[in-house]
User: What shape does this take?
Amino acid sequence: MKFDPVIVKINSVDGFQGGEEDIIILSTVRSNSDGAVGFLSNRQRTNVSLTRARYCLWILGNATTLSRSGSIWADLVRDAKDRQCFFNANSDKDISRVLAKHKIETNKVKDRKSTPFKVRNSGVQVPSRSGMNDESPSTSTGIGGFPGDTEENVEDITVKRIPDTFSSLESYLDSFTCPLIEEVHADVFLSLDGYAHANFIEVVRMEKLDNEKFIFGFEVSEPSKDEKSRETYDPTEGDIIVVSTQKPKHVSDLTQNKASYVLGSVLKCGDDEDFPTDCCIVQLSSSIPVEADPETKMPKGAIFAVFLINRKTYNRIWKCLRLGANDGNLANLQNKSSTNMVNLVRQYKPKVVEDNSSQVSQCLKHGSVDFLGLEKLNLNASQLNAVADCVSVMENQLSSLKLIWGPPGTGKTKTISTILWAMLIKGRKTLTCAPTNTSILEVASRIVRLVRGCSDGSACFLSDIVLFGNKKRMKIDDGHELSVIFLDSRAERLLPCFEPNTGWRHCLCSLIDLLENSVTKYKYYIEDVLEKRKDIEKETAEKDKGENVPWRMQFGNGSCEKKCGRPEDKEEASRLLPFKDYLKDGYNNLSQNLSYCIEILYNNHPRNSGTERSFQCMLEVLELIKILHGMINCYKGNADIWSDELLETMIEEDSDPVLWSEQLVSVQTSTCIKSKFRLARLLCVQELKYLVKNLELPNYYSIQPIKLYLLQRTKCILCTVSSSFRLYNVPMDVSRSGICGPFKQPEKANLLEMLIVDEAAQLKECETLIPLQLPGITQAVFIGDEYQLPALVKSKIADNACFGRSVFERLSLLGYSKHLLNVQYRMHPEISRFPVATFYDGKISDGSNVTNGGHETAEKNGRSLKNTIEVATVLRIVQRLFKEAVSTQSKLSVGVVSPYNAQVRAIQEKVGKSYNMYDGFSVKVKSVDGFQGAEEDIIIISTVRSNGAGSVGFLTNLQRTNLALTRAKHCLWIVGNGTTLSNSKSIWQKIIKDAQDRGCFFDANDDKDLSNAIIKAIIELDDAENLSKMDSMHISRPRNQGQTTVHEKSEACKIQFVWTLEISYGVGVKACLFSCHSGLPKEENHFVDIPRIYRFQRPPTG
Assistant: This one.
C-alpha cells in the first residue's frame, strides 16, 4: 500500500501566523542557568506558538531555563507537570541516544570566535530620507527617503511615542512620520547585515536615460535555475539595490572600497505591461563605477545589482500620511481621499459606540439579516451576531467602525466570507484587505467556494468578485482555482470582447445583419463573385500575353479575398455557393463567434440590477442560436424555411422583454417548421438588438483599461493592504453597466462602501490608512486578535514609539467594543486549555468537532454529509461477509443503507463491482428511500452523524428510521456514533437504551484486524484529518476469538463477529460498532459500529 508523504513545514513563529497544522513541534532554543528566554517572553509570540496545532503539540526545551524565566513559560512548565504531560528526554532510549551522539559530535568541533559586524558603524552610506516616491521618479537628490524633504542626518530626527488619542487629524497623521523614517533606515541597515546572503543578478547592458539625473536602463541576465544559487534576483518596482562591481560576499566589500558601489532604486521593471521582462529602469545615488561601451551598451567590467529591500509599501504609507498636508505633488490624491473614516478612528467616543451596540441588538431582534440565506452557512451564535451587526449598519447613513475579535481557530475567515456573501446579495461594494498574500488568498478561496457551493439563484456570481495583486508572488496560473477571479486573468479573457473590429458589438451586429438581410446579402455576394470571375478572366488573358501579374489583396464588402495565379485559388474565388450553403456557412461562423463572446461575458463581466435582463438575454440567445443552427444545417424536411418571403419578413422593433422567456418556450415546443423558424429568427434578432443597446462595451486594445473597467464595476474587491493604494488611480464615479445608451439614465457613482481588514492586529496603524482613506468608504470592519503577533518592526526606536501597534490594538486598549468569536474549532481541548485560560480568560469554548471527535463532513461543493470512518467500517464488514460466504459456498444478499446521498456515493465508490465475480453474493448500496419495498438477508445501516450536539438530521424522521430497521431478514448492523445518537433526543436514543438493556451494546476495544483495516481505509481515502483526530489507539487481543461462519438460510445461521474495537479520540469519543439482530432460531450476532457495539437478538421461536 502506498502512503502519502508526510508534509513537514519549518518556519519561524511569525511565519506560522494565521496557519495551522495537525501536529506542531515547538523548539524553544534557550538553554542557560539564569532563565533568560529572550523572544520567548513575548506573550503574543507565545500565544501564536501554542495555538497552531490541531491535534498534538510538542514543546522541546530546557525546563530549568524556562522555569526560572519568570515568564509565561514558567506557568506553562508547571501546567505540563500538573497534567502529567512533562517528559524527560533521557527516559526515552531512542531520543537519549540521539542526544548523546550529538553531544559527542559537538565536542569535536572547535569553537571559532568571530566579531559581529555592526552595520551602523560600518561606514556604509545609506540613503537619506529625501526622494522617496512610489510610481514616479523622485524629484529630489536622494533615493531612499521621502519627497519634499531636504537632506538631513537621520540621527537628528526625534522619534516620539505615538499617543493613544489625538487632538486633530494633522497631529494624528504627523505622529507616524518620524517613526516611519526611522523604520525605513533600520530596514536598510539590517538588510546590509545579510548582504553576504543577498540575491543578485548581473547587468549585461546599460544606458543612461537622463543627462541631469542618474537614471539608467538596465538589461539583466536570466536568473539562475539552480536552487543553491543566489543569482536569482528579479528586479521589482520599489526595490532598493546596491549596484556593485563584485558579487556580494561580505558587507566589508563595500566599506573597504566605497567607490566600488552605488545605491539605487528600481523605478520600472518587467512587471509592467509592454515592458521587457529582463529590463528595468533604476535611479542611482551617483554615477556607476563602470562605463558602458557606446555601441553595444555592454559594461566594460562586471557589474551586479544586489537586492536590499523593497520600499513600495513604505512609499505608499508616506503618501497616505501626506494626504492632509499642503503638498502640490499629492494634490490629485488629496482630492480623491476620504477623511470620514480616519476621523472616526482617531476620535474615539465610548458613549457613541455603546449606543451603537444597543442599536445592534435591536437590529438583530428585527431580523436585519433575514432572507440572506445565512442559516445554511452553519454559523455559531457569535459569528452570526458579528455578521448581522456589520450588515445592519449598511442601512444607516452614518459612518461606523466594527471590531471583530477572532482568537485562533474561531472562524475569522468564515465570518469574513459570510459578510462578503451578504454584501453581494445586497449589491453593496466592498474592499477586503489583508496584510499578506497568504491571508488574502485564503479569504478569496473561501468566498469563491461559498459562491460556487450556493449557486442556487442567490444573486451571487463569481464575476462580481475580483482579486488583484502580484501574479508571480501569488502563484496564480491559469489552472489555479482563483484564476477565475484574478484581475489579470479576467482582463485577458475579456480582451477579445472589447476589441472594436471583432468584439462584442461586431458579433452582435453581424449576426443581426445576416438574419435580417440574408437574401439581400446573398444578392451582393453573387455580384461580388461575378466581379471576381471577370477579374480572373482578365488576369488569365494578361498572362497569356506574357505579363507577370503579381499576387495582390482585394478588400471589399468587409472581407479580404486573396487573388493569385494558382488554378485552385481561381476556382475557389469564382465558385458560387447555393443560397443554402451561403447562409449555413455565414450563420455557423457568426453564431460561433457570438457564442464564444457570450460565454466570456456571462462568466466574467460584473453584474448589477441594470444588467440583469441583459444576462438573461444572453442565455436565451444561446438557446435560440442552437435552435436556428439545427434548422439551418438540416436541409431535409426544412424546405419551407428557405422562401424569400419568410427570410425577408421584417422584424418588429417594439417588443416586451418580459415576454421573451415565454416566447422562447413557444419556439421550443412548436412543431411547425415554418412557424418555428419564423418565431426563432424574430425573437433572436429582437434580443440581439436589445443587447446592442443595453450592454455596450467600450473599445479597448489592451488589458490595462479593461482592468480599470472591472475595478470600477465589481462589487467585491480583494487585495493586500499595500496593493489597495492602486485604487486611488481608479475613478469610481462611472456607470456600472458600461457606456450609457441613448435611452438610459446615468447610474450613481459606484464608490466603495465597506472596508474589511483581515488580520487587522498584524498591521501598523499607519499602514491601515492606505485603504481607510479611499473615497466612498463609510463602514469599516477590522477582524483580528491583539493577543497574537503584531506587525514586524525592524527598528527598536520605532518599536518603543509604538510604531508597530495596530489600530485594532489601540482601540481595544481604549475600551472600544468588540464582537468576540467565542468558539474554537481547531485545537484539541487539551491543547487549547492553557492558552484559552491564560490569554483569553476562559472566554473561548471548544467546538463540537474537537470535543466529540466528530468526523461527519460535507461533500465538496455540496450539502450532503459523509463519514469516512463509517465508510471504512462498512467496507470491512462487507469484506468479511464475502470471504465467509465464498468459503462456505453460501448465498447471501447484503444491503447497505444510509440516509445521506454523499455517504451512499462514498460507499458505492469503494465497493464498486468488486463482488460481481461471485454469483451467490450481492451488495446493494442505496439511500433509505431507495430501499423502500426491498429486503435483503443482511442490512448494514450507516448513520453518518457524529457530533457533540446530538444533531442527527434525517435520522429523526420516524418513517425513515422504521424503513431502515425493517429491511433485514436475518441480520441488521447499525454503524454510528453512540454518543451522538444517545444525545439526539430522538428515536435513536431509545434504540441505544434498548440495546444496552438487552446486552446488545458493545464497547469496541480489542480487535487489531478491524482497527488496522479502518486505519488503512482512511489513508486510502486520503482523509488524514480523521486519522489525525485519533488521540490514541488502544488495541489488545480480542476477548473472544470468533470465526465468521455463514450457513444456508434453511438451516440455523450463525454469524459471529467477536470484534471489539475502541479508537479513543482526544475528546473521548469511542469508535465502536453496535448492531441490531433479528434472525432465525439459535442465531447469534455480534455487529460493528463506530462508537459502541450493540446487538439486538430476537428470542428463539422454537
